[in-house]
Amino acid sequence: MVRLAIYDMDKTITRAATWTPFLLHAARGYAPWRLALLPLLAGEGIAYGIGLRDRGALKERAQRLMLGDLVAAPAMAALADTFADRLMAVGVHPAALAQIAADRAAGYRLVLATASFGFYVGAIADRLGFDAVIATGSERGANGAIRAAIAGENCYGPAKLRMIEAWLASQGIARDTAHVRFYSDHASDAPTLDWADEAFAVNPHPPLRVLAVARGWPVLDWAA
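Below the sequence we write its predicted structure tokens.
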């Protein structure tokens, strides 16, 4: 039996969402003049809030505003490394680190499954000791340059479960030969929580807390 411990990242392992902090960090290091476009970024957030943008479009537009249409792969990797170092210093729940270590010691293969973009999540996953990353992909230009465009699906909600299942297939792991733990803070991950053998509601927002009580999922407070 293959044992898998699959973790959401933002607000599950980390104290806060990471996408906007990464964009601001990257803009300061890569194109500081783009910080003057922050009012436009706020406008994109409002457009999403009133239903004029979906999550994927919001992420693409935000990246384009803060970093431009295309960033060379080495530059983006350097930005991801410095962001990951800062995040690990102050932005990760110690209790999350303890659970990751416990799952590793118990023989679980560690998988990070997040809606955040893989081009910066990989550096965080490396520092956390994960074995694999399932994340939102990016279209690529010449020499692997990263475009402000999603490749495939935004790894969110039902799409996250589809991408996890595709990863299992790519690894030659049949679902009935795997025991899966899944940790998340958000009700959007309900499809994956239902699918897992063990589901944990971590630092849950109110809708997930209600769902966890109804489903009998353990509630873990890693923010204490």
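Strands lie at 2-7, 70-71, 109-117, 132-140, 146-151, 178-184, 198-202, 219-220.
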